[in-house]
Write a structure and sequence with these properties.
The structure is a homodimer.
Chain A: E1 4-8, H1 13-24, E2 29-33, H2 46-51, H3 57-60, H4 71-78, E3 81-83, E4 86-92, E5 97-102, E6 108-112, E7 115-118, E8 122-124, E9 137-139, H5 143-154, E10 160-164, H6 168-181, E11 184-188, H7 201-213, E12 217-219, E13 222-230, E14 233-240, E15 252-257, E16 259-262, E17 266-268, H8 271-275, E18 286-287, E19 299-301, E20 306-309, E21 316-317, H9 322-336, E22 350-354, E23 357-363, H10 366-371, E24 376-384, E25 395-403, E26 409-416, H11 419-433, H12 439-443, H13 459-471, E27 477-478, H14 480-488, E28 495-499, H15 503-512, E29 517-519, E30 537-541, H16 546-557, E31 563-566, H17 569-575
Parallel strand pairs in A: 1-2, 1-7, 2-3, 7-19, 9-16, 10-11, 10-16, 11-12, 18-20, 27-31, 28-29, 28-30, 30-31
Antiparallel strand pairs in A: 4-5, 5-6, 8-17, 13-14, 14-15, 20-21, 22-23, 23-26, 24-25, 25-26
Chain lengths: ~575, ~575
Amino acid sequence: MPQNVLVIGGVALGPKAACRLKRLDPEATVTILDRGEKISYGGCGIPFFVSGEVSDASELQSTSFHMLRDEAFFRDTKDISVRNCTEALSIDRAAKTVRVRHLPTGAEETLGYDKLVIATGSTPRRLPIPGALLPGVQVVSDLDSAVAIRSGLTAGKVGSAVVIGAGFIGLEMAVALADMWGIETTVVEYADQILPTVLGPTMARIAQKHMEEKGVTFRLNAQVTAIQGEGATERVVVKSAAPSTDNNPAGEETLDAELVIMSVGVAPNSELAKAAGLTVSERGGIVVNDHLQTSDPDIYSAGDCVELTSAITGQPMYLPMGSLANRHGRIVGDNLAGLNRKIEGVLGSWCVKLFDQNAAGTGLTLAGAKRAGFDAIAVQVCQQDRAHFYPDKDFMFLELIAERGTRRVLGVQGVSLMGDALVARINAVAAVLGQAPSVDVLSNLELPYSPPFTTAMDILNMLGNVADNVLAGRNRSITPEQFAELFAKRDDDATFFIDCREWGNAGPFVEKYPGRWHNIPQGQLAHRLSEVPRDKHLVLVCNTGTRSYEAFSLLARAGYTDMANVAGGMVALHAAGVDI
Amino acid sequence: MPQNVLVIGGVALGPKAACRLKRLDPEATVTILDRGEKISYGGCGIPFFVSGEVSDASELQSTSFHMLRDEAFFRDTKDISVRNCTEALSIDRAAKTVRVRHLPTGAEETLGYDKLVIATGSTPRRLPIPGALLPGVQVVSDLDSAVAIRSGLTAGKVGSAVVIGAGFIGLEMAVALADMWGIETTVVEYADQILPTVLGPTMARIAQKHMEEKGVTFRLNAQVTAIQGEGATERVVVKSAAPSTDNNPAGEETLDAELVIMSVGVAPNSELAKAAGLTVSERGGIVVNDHLQTSDPDIYSAGDCVELTSAITGQPMYLPMGSLANRHGRIVGDNLAGLNRKIEGVLGSWCVKLFDQNAAGTGLTLAGAKRAGFDAIAVQVCQQDRAHFYPDKDFMFLELIAERGTRRVLGVQGVSLMGDALVARINAVAAVLGQAPSVDVLSNLELPYSPPFTTAMDILNMLGNVADNVLAGRNRSITPEQFAELFAKRDDDATFFIDCREWGNAGPFVEKYPGRWHNIPQGQLAHRLSEVPRDKHLVLVCNTGTRSYEAFSLLARAGYTDMANVAGGMVALHAAGVDI
C-alpha cells in the first residue's frame, strides 16, 4: 500500500522533501499545502529583487532552466499535488488527519496522512512598539511583501528609508535601497555593532565603514521606540542607548522616512505543532531528533520552524537559513522513504555582500564563545589574498576564535573586497569545524596554491600559525579598537608606540605626533634597543602585523614582556576607521 | 650552549625553517648556504614575471612590504647568516661537518653543525634527446633562467615558441607567451590530455578548448624526439604517438620556434644526501619520517627534495609544491627548536589560471585512483555557481572520484571561469579529504550561502548527492566523451537519444538529426512513455543534467534499465567541444 504523505509548507524545505521522496518512492502520494498563492520561491533572493538586480519576481520562483515552480510544474514533472491558498488549521495525531481551509472560499476539509511534514517556516518579528503596523512599515516576509516594497520604489514614492535591524536582511535591504535606488537610508541597530551575533567588532566596523562610504547612515546602540504616521511619511522615533558619539547623538531623535523596513529577526511558526501537542522549545522551535522527527515519529519537521543543535556548543541553536532547509529537506525525503539518515550539529555558516565589501563566517564569535562558557581568545590576520607580487590583489581580514587550553577552533569570520576568495577560506573552516579541530589543523591545511589565487602560506595557514603563537605566549596582539583606546590616552605617556616600518611610511606619523610616535624600523631594532623603554607598555605597529610580530619576538628575546602588537597593523587601523 | 644549525638551500623551505627556528630559539646560530646568487624568491611567480604581469624580478625576491630578501635582510632582521654562491660539496655525518665551495673564488672550507637541514629542492628535467641543450631551449629553473627567457622576449627575438609538457608550469608559460607577448605557441604533450596527472579528461578538454580559443595550439599523444638548431631558430621534431585526428597529424612533423621551453617535471636534488649515506627512495626523493627527519636524526629535510606519503593511498608521493615547502619549513623550524611537530600525509591540492579559465583540484583523478588500486567511479556536476536568479554568474564543472563500497571521496577536480569560487570548493574538500570522508560528508557540508556567492544547495552538496545517487544505482551518467562515441554511431540505431528540454531548445537538434534526436520535455515524459523504446539503450540529455536525472528517475519507475544521462548536459558537451 503506497504511503500518503502530507507536507505543510511550500517553500524550500517542503518541496525539497517532497521531490526527493517521490524520486525514491514513486508510489507515494504526496501533497503540499501552502497558505500563500506562490510556493517554492527563493526567499533569500528578495533583497536582490527589491534592488532590481533580479528584474521579475517570477525568477525567484523559477527553476534554473526558467520553468515556473507552480502547481502545474509539480503535478506534471514531479507527480506531486499542490494546494496553495490553503491553510492547515489543526492536526489530529490520533486520527492522523489535518484540518485545512481553502482561504479564498473558506471551504474546510480533513486530509488524512501516513506521514506528515511540518515545514511551516518562520515569520519576521515585529517590534512591539506603537506604529509597528502602519502602512509604510514593511517586514521582508514573502514574495508579496517584496513586490509591495518594490512597487513603492518604482512609483518614486520613497526618498528616505529607515531599516530597523543590522542583520543580514536589514543590511542587504539597506544596500538594495541605497545602491540601486539612491534612497537616503539609515540603519538603526540596538547592539553596538552591525551583524552583532555573527561578526566580531573589528570586522563589523570595517564593513560598516565601507557602507558609510557608500552613503548608508547608521545609528548603533539605538532603539526605535515608536513609529508615528504623518500622511505618506512615517516618523521613526529613535532613542539612543549609549553616550553621544559622532555617529550617535545622545537622547532621542526622529527620523522621517517614507519606507520603514523592520528586520529584527524571525520567529519559528510552531503554533500548529504546539497545538497538536508536539514538543516545542521555550524559544519556540519545534524539537526534532537527529532523524528530523518531532516528538511524534510519524511527523517530521525541519527548516525555519525547528530548533537544532550547535555542533560547537552542543546546545540548542536556531538557524533559519535557506541553504540548510534545502539540505535537511533532502534528509526528510530520505527518511520518509526509509533510508535512515541522520543530521549533524550545525555551525552557523554565512556570507553577505555589502556593496563591494563582503563578510562571511562560520561558528562562534568571541562574544558568542564567551557567552557559551568557553575560555576563548580571538586572533586577527590581515593579508593580501594573492601572492604579494601578483598585480591584482586586495587585503583580507580574518579573525579566529579559539579555546585556550584545548586550542580548539570555535569560529572564523572575515571581511574582504574579494568575496569569493573570502568564502573560499570560510568554506575550508566550515568543512572541518564540526570536528573540533585544533588551530594546528588550520596551520597545516593543504589548500590549492598558485600566485593568481592566494599566497604560498595561505591566510588560513597564517591564521593558524598566529593563533598557535598567541596561545603559546609567543605573540600578543591588540585590536584596532584597543589601539584607539590606548592612543587616545597617549599623553599619559604610559604607552610607548613603536612604528616598525621604514621612515618613508612612519615619518609622517612621527611628525604628526612628536614625542608620542616612535619609529624604529624592524631591521634596525636589534641595534637600537637602548631607545626602547623598559618601564612602559609597548605597542608595536607596522603595515599588516608581520614586522611588528618580528619586533615582538626580538624584544621578547631582549627581556621585554609588557607589550603587544597591533593585529593587522596600519591597514586594519585604516579599514576600521581609527582616526590617526 | 646554543645550537649551530646549517641550512643547505635558500629558497622557500630553507629560509622559512631558519626564520622560524630563530624566533623560537634566538640563541641558535643559523647559516643558510645557497649555490645561487639570489635566494628566498617566489619560484611559483616565474611565469608571471615572464608574462610581464610582475614587472621586475626583484619583486619575486621581496617581502610583502617590498624589502629585498637578500643577505643584509636576513642578517639585520633575522640574525641569520647567508652565504650565497656557495655550494655544499659533501656531508661528513660522523664529524658533523659540511664541505663547501665558494663558487666565484673556488675557495673551500669545512663548516660544522649540530643540526643540518637539507633544502636542496629540485631541478627541472631535460628530455634525453638530441638538441636538449641548444641555446634556444630553456627550462624554468630559477630567477636567472626566467630573466633569460624574458630578455629574449623583450628583445623581440621570439615569434613562435614550443612548450614541451602540458603540466602546470608548461601551461602557465604558454599563457604568458601567447597572452602577453602574442607569440604563436604550441604545447606538445606526451599524454592524451593536458594536466594528465591531476585532472580528468573531460575537465582537461574544457580547459584545453578555452586555451585553443585564446590561440594556443596543442599536440597531444605527441613526443618530441629531437631539437635541431638552425641559427636563431630551433626545429622541434614531434612524433605523434596516436592515429591522426584534427588536432594531431599522424607521423612526424617539425615545428619551428625561436624559443623552446622544456617543462617536463622536476627531479629531487638528492645527490648530496645520497652521497652522505642517507636513505633515498628509488624515485630519488630523500626519505623522511613524520618529523621531517632523514635517516640521520640530526639531519632534517623537506620541500622538493623529499618523498612524502599520500594521505589517500598511504603510498609514497612526490609533491614539489612551494606552498607545502613553506608549511613544512615551519615544522622543521619547530622541530629544530624542540617542539616535536608531526606532518600529515599529503593530498596534492593545486590550482592554475589558464587565461580566463581556471582549473583546480585535490586528491586523485579517476585514472590515478584506478592506478592506486581503488574500485573507483567518477561523477560530474555542472551548475551555475550563483543562485540561478542572480544576474552575474557562470557555470562550474566539478568531478568527484569516489570508491565504490566504502563511498569514500578520493578526489575532486574542476574548471570554471570563476576562479576564486572554484578554489572555494576545492578548499572545502581539501580540508576534509585526509580523513577519508564519505560522499555524504559533501552532501551535508554547511557552507556559507547567499545568492551573490553560491546556490542554496551548494555545488559541493549537489556533487555529494549525485555521487550518493550513482553509488546507490539511482542515477547513471556518461561523460561528454562517452556521449560523443555513442553519438558518432547514431546511425546504428542502437541508442535512442532523448532531449528532455522544451522544444525551443531541443527543436534545432531534432531538425538537424531527423530520426536520431528525439524531444520529450521532462514534464511530458510521464504521458509519453509509449514513445520510449524498450529495446534500445537510452541516452538522456538536458541543459546541465538536472532534468535528465528527473527523466532517468521517472523511466526507472516505469521499468527502464538500459539508460544513462549526460553529466553536465548540453553545457558540458559544448564546453568540452563535442561536435553536435
